[in-house]
Amino acid sequence: MSILNSILGNASEVDVKELQREFSEILAPGEEIDAAFKIFRDKWVFTTKRLILLNVQGLTGSKREYHSIPYSSINQFCIETAGTFDGDCEMKMWVKGSAQPLVKEFRRGTDIKGVQRTLASHILK
Fold it and tell me: Is pLDDT at 2 greater than 80 in this prediction?
């Protein structure tokens, strides 16, 4: 991943072995990381059981929020690719028990279709 992509927020795939140590304390017994995408400091981690959205906060990045969404809780999802005048892409996920979708914006150049394909492969098993 280049520095420019990191600064601009473009999602790039992360080596799963690098994440094993970082996420070992929050993974359930038997749960494994299948794929992950990094967007600047944040990560989308696809495990065998759930999607973990890591939100790194603060100047030092020491404060972290781990948002776990079981795949069975995701009712539907959609992506919006970047347009000519709107440079951002976005993904929306509707989760059971919430009327509003969870919305995440990505910068132009993000492999939003790859993120969607990975989510679909876990939900549509």
Answer: no
